[in-house]
Amino acid sequence: KNIVILISGRGSNMQAIVRAARSEQWPCRIAAVISNRADAEGLQFAAQHGIPAEVVVSKSFATRDAFDAALQSVIDRFEPDLIVLAGFMRILTPKFVEHYAGRMLNIHPSLLPSFPGLATHRQALAAGVKVHGATVHFVTAELDHGPIVAQAVVPVLPADNEQSLAERILVEEHKIYPQAVKWFVEGRLSIDNGVVRIADEP
Ligand code: GRF
């Protein structure tokens, strides 16, 4: 299976997926890494690891539709079976999302459906929740609302600030995102009435 990974910055989730795919020899190829920012740090990792890297600069497009159309044409050159959003900080148009229905995953740093949107760790601290975490989900038109594939939970400690919480959760992101992508490439994920089913290991 061909995987295309979209990033906007550091790309640590992308790195975790690439490393796991290679070391565990998943039945897939990381076909490309695409960034909407030319200065995304993750592009260097892609280049160093022999992964085709592309940049489609979002801010040089006048509309979301124009950007998404350009992005889609670059993505589709790689004939992807799966699109992985890994810290890709763009809201996508319904048309784009529909084109990749059932084959686009995202990671969101909260226990969805709590705290969709931005600044999730700040939201969690303000709400006083005692546990927080991360969610891998299929992407649907409604932001941060698609069928849930995997979640990880961490405690919120009295001394936490946004950064300490983000660090504790990132460690877990690097475990659940590769796991979810692996399930997908093994053909084990299906969606039944909006709920993800994970088939047993063959
Ligand atoms: C992660 O916390 C991800 O959940 C969020 O943005 C961060 C991206 O980190 N959407 P990285 O680029 O994968 O290092």
From TrEMBL:
Top-level enzyme category: transferase
Q: Where does this protein hold (6R)-10-formyltetrahydrofolate?
A: R64, M89, R90, I91, L92, N106
**Which EC number applies?**
2.1.2.2
Q: Which residues bind N(1)-(5-phospho-beta-D-ribosyl)glycinamide?
A: G11, S12, N13
Active site residues according to the UniProt entry: H108 (proton donor)
**Record keyword Transferase present:** yes
One matching Pfam family is Formyl_trans_N
Q: Which UniProt keywords apply?
A: Purine biosynthesis, Transferase
Known catalysed reaction(s)? N(1)-(5-phospho-beta-D-ribosyl)glycinamide + (6R)-10-formyltetrahydrofolate = N(2)-formyl-N(1)-(5-phospho-beta-D-ribosyl)glycinamide + (6S)-5,6,7,8-tetrahydrofolate + H(+)
Q: In which pathway does it act?
A: Purine metabolism; IMP biosynthesis via de novo pathway; N(2)-formyl-N(1)-(5-phospho-D-ribosyl)glycinamide from N(1)-(5-phospho-D-ribosyl)glycinamide (10-formyl THF route): step 1/1
Q: Where is this site: Raises pKa of active site His?
A: D144
| Molecular function GO terms recorded | phosphoribosylglycinamide formyltransferase activity
* Gene3D superfamilies registered for this protein in UniProt: Formyl transferase, N-terminal domain
Give every Formyl transferase N-terminal domain span.
1-181
Q: Which PROSITE patterns match?
A: GART (PS00373)
Q: Do you know which InterPro entries this protein is assigned to?
A: Formyl_transf_N, Formyl_transf_N_sf, GART, GART_AS
Q: Which NCBIfam families match?
A: PurN (TIGR00639)
Q: Which PANTHER family does the protein's record reference? A: PHOSPHORIBOSYLGLYCINAMIDE FORMYLTRANSFERASE
Tell me the function of this protein: Catalyzes the transfer of a formyl group from 10-formyltetrahydrofolate to 5-phospho-ribosyl-glycinamide (GAR), producing 5-phospho-ribosyl-N-formylglycinamide (FGAR) and tetrahydrofolate.
Report the sequence similarity comment from the record: Belongs to the GART family.
| Entry protein name | Phosphoribosylglycinamide formyltransferase
Organism, per UniProt?
Answer: Noviherbaspirillum album
